[in-house]
Give the backbone structure.
Amino acid sequence: MKVKTPSKLEKVLAAGHVAVTSECGPPRGSDPEVIIKKANLIKDHVDAINITDNQTSVTRMCSLAACIRLKLMGLEPVLQMVTRDRNRIALQSDILGAASFDIYNILCLSGDHQSFGDCPTGQNVHDIDSMQLIQTVRHMRDEHKFLGGADIERPPEMFVGAAANPFADPFEIRVPRLAKKIAAGVEFIQTQCIYDLDKFELWMKMAGDRGLTEKVSIFAGMTPFKSAGMARYMKNRVPGIEVPDEMIKRMADTPKEKQAEEGIKICIESIERLKEVEGVRGFHVMAIEWEEIVPEIVEKSGLYPRPSVE
Amino acid sequence: MIVADKKPIEEIIEEIKGHEKILILGCNECVTVCEAGGKKEVGILASALRMYFLNQGREVKIDEETLERQCDHEYLEEIRDVMDQYDAVVSLACGVGVQFMAEKYHTTPIYPGVNTCFLGATEKRGLWTERCQACGQCILARTGGICPVSRCAKRILNGPCGGSDHGKCEINKEIDCAWQLIIDRLKALNSLDDYEQLSPLKDWSTDRAGGPRKVVREDVQE
């Protein structure tokens, strides 16, 4: 497979490897050590590291600055960018800023609504949506042009990703929605956390039947449970996440001090199973504020060592 | 119609407490339908204010009037003869009426008596919901007659986002997911295939973003 950008992530996929990504949330402060420490915990076990963009609408250090920090460490960042906080001028400008530091991956998102965060009385922007952000990056990269039509000198070279949630409602448009993102120009997809493996496999099959899994690299999103409480929270409180009852029961039936271990076990079993699913090209391990566990999950899932590509 | 809601009376009192001759001015249009600023609400507010000032031991003249509209010159002229009797007006019209009054009666303070909320419809008595944000470039033909600009919390033109949950919006279980409604309607119209058409970047220059707007129709001007 021919690559279109200098992205290491794209190269890993093009070489036919199962890719592994993870993510770090920037701190609620300006201490760069937080990002450096988190990145050091996972850097040898992943191909690229997503940096979230004010996730759950809570104000944090900006994704771009944290991505630059990773770049300075010689690592491969995935710049997450939400359309909630910036209009098309700011988005294009930040894309160029990222490109000036040779950041080669971007994940285009709409972002959680600001009512969930620390500024619920703030405005939201939503000048464009996540699909239109995909189109914007592709336009800048491939046509070497701004949205306004002018030429870009040294255009961004970014491998373009987006999220997909196979579990959100309504289910019937989940595959058409993926098709739409592909039509917009997306090249890789990181999914919402998967616990209902049957439903995910159904979604993958439906996507495969339409030939979509040939056109985009799908990363299965994995988040280990730290406790039975977290499993219940994910099921009941987080919109668009489905957790089967038997998985909740398995966590709840485990003694409290062993629940984290059980959560990791479930995660590893899930990865083992999903590795076999046609079209799954990678795993996105989101260990929320539990980055230190990523190496163990990657190793025990048989995804270590990570390949070197050039 | 324009939907408004009552302002807390404490807030109104705080604004007008320095005045002695006050006109409470209602509007017979939208704010009457949404029961926030019609003749009835003018009466209720006026009585409450009279009671308040009486309890304060103050003599404040509170009069009532309701115009056919506060967004038309001719109706606002109807009170020109009596305006010199008042040192303040509380307008229960929408923000348009309040401002038009202020423009017309330049030296009299005009205070808003309602909060203007949105362009919406009466679902049932006591329940009004938003339908339009007047973006100036209607896309309803492409979205099954349901507006994602006004009805999606993120005004997503290619929705739904991942927060659509059993037909409801993630921000509030009382709010329908606009994109669920759009998909249901496209299905009812037998045109679900249209869902896969990408909606292009919207031109927001006709929206608030483009600055104060004007509709000029020379064909109907006198």
Remarks:
- Chain A has one domain: 8-226+273-300.
- The first strand of chain A starts at residue 19 and ends at 24.
